């Protein structure tokens, strides 16, 4: 199978690794995903096939959009509905939540959930938490561009839309928003509706893919790269040699004989190879 991307609509309950392994068997090629989705979460999970995984750096820091439901008045050890209950507290009023939301937009600092893939001395947080070991995770910076309250869906649950940068923990947002209102909270529903250019409108359920039709759903790697096109016929470039160019500084999609080759970087009148796909 040629290099490209599958925009998978991950089911709740599946791990991201399970999705990647299924696609590896379909594609018979190395694969990788762009940004883990918790088993609790559903939605957009882009998976790169073959050399398209070399392009991940161009996508990992793109904006992601989530629809989430937070339960207020209690929490769990995992900060989601699958954990063990912990504590009790009041349910905040809508006005309290609306007043608190601006504190969680812009560049913010958050402590990742202990049940996460963040490492402590080379060991995953979730592994240590499952063993009952005491540890602390370091605070990290992230960006939240929009945090909107969509409405109340049950006596203790509210629904939100969150647009954020890569590496944002929605479970931490639930915990910290609740704490700012003097209570406890956790995530009961989480769906990623967009990851950069990949959206839920064009996502395909994993179970819909078969060895016979998988190619139909493979997105060509160059079609989702937001760079201008540059045709290069100078053979030196394809041997790793920088060549003169009159193009403006920036990253380009490089084509050789009409076929997508990879990316190159123009700087100061010189064009250099960056990522090779073929």
Could you give a short description of this structure?
The chain has 278 residues and is mainly beta. 14% of the residues lie in helices and 39% in strands.
How much is the average pLDDT? Answer: 91
- How many β-strand runs? 20
Number of helices: 5
Helix content: 10-25%
Tell me the structural class.
mainly beta
Say which CATH homologous superfamily of the largest domain is assigned: Pseudouridine synthase
Task: Examine the coordinates and then state which fold CATH places here, giving the name of the CATH topology of the largest domain.
Answer: Pseudouridine synthase
Task: Give the SSE order as H and E letters.
Answer: EHEEEEEHEEEHEEHEEEHEEEEEE
Strand content: 35-45%
Major β-sheet annotation:
11 strands, mixed
| Radius of gyration using CA atoms only | 22 Å
- For the termini, the CA-CA separation is 13 Å
Output the CATH class name of the largest domain.
Alpha Beta
Low-confidence stretches: none
